[in-house]
Design brief:
five-stranded antiparallel beta sheet, two-stranded antiparallel sheet, 23% helix, cell projection, CFAP300, cytoplasm, cytoskeleton, Cilia- and flagella-associated protein 300
């Protein structure tokens, strides 16, 4: 299966502009279990109940040890996940879900983040058993993509943000491409008829 991301026509369904350049970053995708997150349970980020430890307000405000580990390199827990593992698609999904959007209400326990990551990962990534070694291996190829027009980036958004992304997961056997897309920010909101005051 061959996907020519530089054909630009691939993006005509996503953007209403003439695409002049496409960037596609190959994302490591090798994990076949959730063991990557075992260290969260043993390194003081979580309580034995699975509750996420909070930070002292005078230092970090509305923050917890999980989000510190995810984004602050000077966090005492930052290195429990190696830089190599932080590049993995599985970890990227987990980080995106934990950080959320601009109106995110953070969870107090880890389970919703782990279960959501696991569910989306299983939906997007295909695996296959090696006939010789009997090991399960990921066969999907994952790209993080962005498209540009004459004015700059136009997909997945016109402004860059850590929580703005578009991932393409390519299944070479089924010849399917799965897209996971998010644009950080608050969308347009309008009052419905039930929200309007009665006269």
């Amino acid at each position: 299966m061959r996907i020519d991301l530089n054909s630009f026509s691939f993006f005509t369904d996503f953007v209403d502009t003439k695409v002049t350049k496409v960037k596609a970053e190959l994302i490591p995708c090798t994990r076949v279990s959730m063991a990557l997150f075992d260290s969260l349970y043993s390194d003081g980020i979580l309580r034995i109940t699975g509750h996420i430890r909070k930070c002292f307000d005078e230092f970090y405000g509305d923050f917890d040890e999980l989000r510190k580990m995810l984004i602050l390199e000077d966090s005492e827990h930052y290195e429990i996940i190696s830089q190599v593992d932080r590049e993995e698609f599985l970890f990227r999904l987990f980080k995106h879900f934990c950080l959320g959007g601009s109106l995110c209400q953070y969870e107090d326990v880890i389970d919703p983040y782990i279960e959501t990551t696991k569910s989306v990962y299983k939906d997007m990534v295909s695996v296959q058993k090696d006939p010789e070694t009997k090991e399960i291996n990921v066969i999907s190829i994952v790209f993080k993509v962005s498209a540009y027009n004459d004015s700059g980036m136009c997909y997945p958004a016109t402004k860059d943000h850590e929580q703005t992304f578009a991932y393409l997961a390519v299944d070479p056997l089924k010849r399917h491409v799965y897209v996971l897309y998010n644009c950080f920010g608050v969308g347009l909101m309008s009052a419905t008829d039930t929200d309007k005051p009665h006269t």
